[in-house]
Specification:
- The protein has eleven helices and two strands; from the N terminus they run αβααααααβαααα.
- α2 runs antiparallel to α4.
- About 6% of the residues have low confidence.
- Helix content is 60%, strand content 2%.
- By secondary structure, it is an all-alpha fold.
- The chain has a two-stranded parallel ribbon.
- The chain folds into two domains: 140 residues, Double Clp-N motif (Orthogonal Bundle); 33 residues, no CATH class.
């Protein structure tokens, strides 16, 4: 199946794999694939997501961290016990680098030595299958990022749907936007 992927579609998978690895995930999930669609600069998936206000940075901030990242969420009380005011640090970082910068920064505690490729989660495999079906239905010879995004939308994944809803969009609206973008190509 991967031989039918266009270069931008392959780039989506690379971006998804990279963010999964950076966040310490053992599996590449639908959320990681959505991130890849948003990050790759193409006209079908990336533009449709950006037009809806959905960026790679927004998605990354909401992606769960993997269990091998070395630590759970920040515990402000534990930091306060050792004399660190987390809220003060967070406010300073937000003021210097912009709102949410601390949360979106890559976790450098995940060592490069753990660079094993994350496996495809079952829902990711299913969404890739659905993307292939979309490409076939649209009589496309190559799988484009838009096909991958449409596969994700057909998956009915909670993370993907929730991201769209929080941005004020819906599966139907995004699907229509991607179909329109694919028709322009």
């Amino acid at each position: 199946m991967f031989e039918r992927f266009s270069e931008p579609a392959r780039a989506v998978l690379v971006e998804a794999q990279d963010v999964a690895r950076e966040l310490g995930s053992r599996q590449m999930t639908a959320g990681h694939l959505l991130y890849g669609c948003a990050e790759v600069r193409d006209d079908s998936a990336g533009r449709s997501l950006r037009d809806a206000g959905i960026t790679g940075g927004l998605i990354r901030r909401t992606l769960p961290r993997g269990e091998e990242a070395g630590a759970g969420p920040v515990d402000p009380d534990a930091l306060r016990a050792v004399g660190v005011d987390y809220e003060e640090i967070r406010a300073a970082v937000d003021q210097t680098f912009g709102a949410g910068a601390l949360e979106s920064a890559p976790d450098r505690r995940v060592s490069a030595g753990r660079g094993r490729k994350p496996r495809f989660a079952p829902e990711t495999k299913k969404s890739l299958e659905l993307g292939l079906r979309v490409a076939i239905e649209l009589h496309s010879k190559r799988i484009q990022p838009g096909h991958l995004l449409l596969g994700l939308l057909r998956l009915d994944d909670e993370f993907v749907t929730g991201t769209l809803v929080r941005a004020g969009s819906s599966v139907g609206e995004m699907s229509a936007a991607v179909h329109a973008a694919l028709a322009e190509d």
